[in-house]
Design brief:
Blueprint lengths: L3 E7 L2 H18 L2 E7 L2 H4 L5 H4 L7 H8 L5 E5 L11 E6 L7 E4 L14 E3 L3 H10 L4 E3 L5 H9 L5 E5 H6 L8 E2 L14 E6 L3 H7 L5 H16 L8 E8 L2 E8 L10 E8 L3 H17 L10
Parallel strand pairs: 1-2, 1-3, 6-7, 6-8
Antiparallel strand pairs: 3-10, 4-10, 5-8, 5-9, 11-12, 12-13
Length: about 300
């Protein structure tokens, strides 16, 4: 008899797509039998406040980790950008899958490109990272919070609540909604957050056999790039209350990293930005590269932008 694995997942349409995708990989590539355990997280329930004010992105993973801890599930599938940089003791990322398009998408019913927005246009996003970069590109814009799952955000746009909204391209593409993307931001003008576009598979640290099985699903270029990105955020104490962007991409054997930091309180302050390159061939080298990128931001004055205390 084949081994049975239960995947804990949020119940949004995107989260279920991601869980079903991993389920198909486990069944086809590893010969496992897979069930899904759908769950509602605190992050899904609290929709009237920004994540930075109610506990951060960890609100999307805590209930799933509880299911792992209690043995109701053996694996949790996450959008890697939602996974805190420091996992609780006893948990770890066993695999990171090949990244989808990491860029941010410009979505609008009326305008084909960000540059076409009129003066004072209203743009929706609840990401502080996006807020500070949008303000750096267009100080005239009005930027208002936008919470809810992907379908809810699109509905709010379609009802006329915003002139445009900014979403991760990967989520739209995975749900077959690529036609809603009017244009994509270049990764140097709107730097993605750490892990954007990638899926992370979380397990209990003591799940030795399952970790060995999942190792075969690791996409090494994505694994190294996202380890470097997450190291930037970890080094600076990053959370969703910090407007930090970190994106690494491969140029042949060289990993190029673009990072940016804004001020969470004074969102119109000038961005601190840096670009670094390094040859990276191991996780240790990726982590060290991320630390160097974080130090580059410190050298530019990051201390004055970071939360005090």
């Amino acid at each position: 008899m084949s081994e049975t694995i239960t995947i804990a997942t949020r119940e949004s349409r995107l989260a279920l797509w991601q869980a079903e995708y991993v389920k198909s990989l486990l069944e086809q590539d590893l010969g496992l039998k897979v069930n899904l355990l759908g769950m509602t997280t605190r992050g899904d329930q609290i929709l009237d406040r920004s994540l930075s004010k109610v506990g951060g992105k960890g609100l999307f993973v805590k209930e799933l980790e509880t299911a792992l801890e209690e043995g109701r599930a053996q694996l949790a599938v996450h959008s890697l950008k939602d996974v805190p940089m420091e996992l609780p003791e006893g948990f770890e990322l066993a695999a990171i899958l090949e990244r989808e398009d990491p860029r941010d998408a410009f979505v609008s019913a009326r305008y084909a490109h960000f540059s076409e927005l009129p003066l004072g246009a209203l743009v929706g996003t609840s990401s502080l990272r996006r807020v500070v970069q949008l303000k750096a590109l267009r100080p005239d814009l009005r930027i208002e919070p936008l919470r809810g799952n992907l379908d809810t955000r699109l509905r709010k746009l379609d009802e006329g609540g915003y002139d445009a909204i900014v979403l991760a391209a990967a989520g739209l593409m995975r749900l077959g909604l690529a036609e809603r993307i009017r244009s994509r931001f270049d990764t140097q003008e709107m730097i993605p957050c750490a892990g954007q576009g990638a899926l992370g598979l979380e397990v209990r640290a003591d799940a030795g056999r399952l970790k060995q099985q999942l190792a075969g699903l690791i996409h090494r270029p994505t694994w190294l790039a996202t380890q470097a990105e997450r190291a930037v955020s970890r080094s600076l104490g990053g959370s969703c209350s910090m407007p930090l962007a970190a994106h690494a991409h491969w140029e042949g054997a060289v990993l190029q990293m673009n990072v940016a930091l804004g001020d969470a309180e004074q969102t119109d302050r000038p961005l601190l930005k840096a670009t670094l390159n390094a040859e990276v061939g191991s996780v240790g080298e990726a982590l060290a590269f991320g630390e160097r990128a974080a130090q580059a931001l410190r050298d530019l004055g990051a201390a004055a932008y970071l939360p005090q205390g």
